[in-house]
Design a protein that fits this description.
Order of helices and strands: EHEEEEEEEEEEEEEEEEEHEEEEH
Number of strands: 22
CATH class: Mainly Beta
CATH topology: Beta-galactosidase, Chain A, domain 5
Helix content: under 10%
Number of domains: 1
Number of helices: 3
Largest sheet: 11 strands, antiparallel
Low-confidence stretches: 4-29
CATH architecture: Distorted Sandwich
Radius of gyration: 19 Å
Structural class: mainly beta
Strand content: 35-45%
Oligomer: single chain
């Protein structure tokens, strides 16, 4: 499980990741020591680089909480970066820096676009980096959400990363929200969302998953590939119209395949919980520049000072060639999913 709320729900994955780090099984190579160092990146002076020697992650404390880089050492960033926004700080305009961020759902403007332009508190403890933003109560902004966001980033010796997304209600009244983790991926890849196991008729008489389609999404869009076992959404720089899709994903994983690399997220689906966007815990949005791989926790009513958590486990694999064909996904990507799942059990 990867979700905890003020009502006391604690997920199995979260407990394993936070209290049994030494028991992890290596998912993609020999385990190495994790190193965290302060560095500069993208024009920001106060960044933190985490690495096991093979995989590296960079988060900045000048704005955020925001993870701006995740990739193999010496290779391309798996995340997209907004070059025009890198290095900027302050101001009341929301900036799409790129990388990985934390929002709250359901989406609304201007509430969802509270600028994460302020300096965050950074704490290092062993192989854990905690980034805590100030409460969203700046009187100079158009809207104040009254929440406080935090990311706890844990890099394990095998190079996989646990990201605990934490939202605290600092209002004097209850607030209903869902934690929403968004990774902005580099172009020319494909998001892969698993479907439930097919069951033949007449054994299956009821629907098995919710799906949300945004009004600007064209279901005949060539970037959408509807399969029997997977939904594939391709990022295509030649197609500028935005596309967004959400599903209730009981499988608890979603991947992004690009240039022989696979970025994989593991997270939980809480049976019986109420999710935003017609029951979606997995969403993707794309245009001509980026593709977002998004996961959400259940909707939760937080009392004053109440907290909610949503946990993702990230894995990065190389030498994995994946096409739109489902047999390619089965043969090349699915074994990596099983490796990752085994390592967090």
């Amino acid at each position: 499980m990867s979700h905890k709320s003020c009502e006391g729900r604690v997920g199995f994955t979260a407990l394993i990741c936070l209290f049994s780090l030494g028991a992890m099984v290596c998912a993609f190579g020999a385990e190495q020591k994790v190193n965290i160092e302060k560095t500069s990146y993208g024009g920001w002076d106060n960044c933190y680089r985490m690495s096991n020697g093979k995989v590296e992650l960079v988060a900045t404390s000048d704005v955020g909480p925001r993870i701006i880089r995740f990739g193999f050492v010496g290779e391309e960033n798996e995340f997209s970066e907004s070059k025009s926004d890198l290095g900027k700080v302050g101001g009341d305009q929301w900036r799409g820096y790129g990388g990985h961020r934390l929002w709250v759902a359901p989406e609304a403007s201007p509430r969802s676009y509270y600028p994460d332009n302020a300096k965050v508190e950074a704490k290092v403890d062993g192989n854990t980096l905690t980034l805590t933003a100030p409460p969203e109560l700046d009187p100079s902004f158009k809207v104040n959400t009254g929440v406080q966001k935090e990311m706890q980033v844990i890099m394990h010796p095998d190079g996989h990363v646990t990201v605990v997304h934490r939202v605290t209600n600092v209002n004097l009244w209850p607030v209903e929200l869902a934690p929403w983790a968004l990774s902005v991926m580099a172009p020319n890849g494909r998001a892969i969302i698993p479907a439930p196991d097919p069951t033949p008729h007449p054994q299956a008489l009821l629907p098995v998953r919710p799906m949300a389609v945004w009004s600007y999404t064209n279901l005949a869009d060539p970037r959408l590939i509807w399969g029997k076992r997977y939904i594939v959404v391709r990022q295509d720089p030649s197609l500028g119209e935005p596309l967004k899709l959400g599903v209730g994903n009981e499988r608890g994983w979603v991947g992004y395949a690009r240039s022989g690399h696979v970025f994989l997220k593991l997270y939980d689906y809480v049976e019986g919980a109420r999710y935003p966007d017609f029951g979606s815990n997995t969403e993707t949005w794309t245009n001509s520049q980026i593709l977002e791989v998004e996961t959400l926790g259940p909707l939760t009513t937080l009392p004053p000072k109440g907290k909610v958590e949503h946990v993702e486990n990230w894995f990065l694999f190389e030498g994995v060639e994946v096409t739109d064909d489902e047999s390619s996904i089965d043969a090349n990507m699915l074994p990596k999913v099983k490796e990752a799942q085994h390592s967090v059990r």
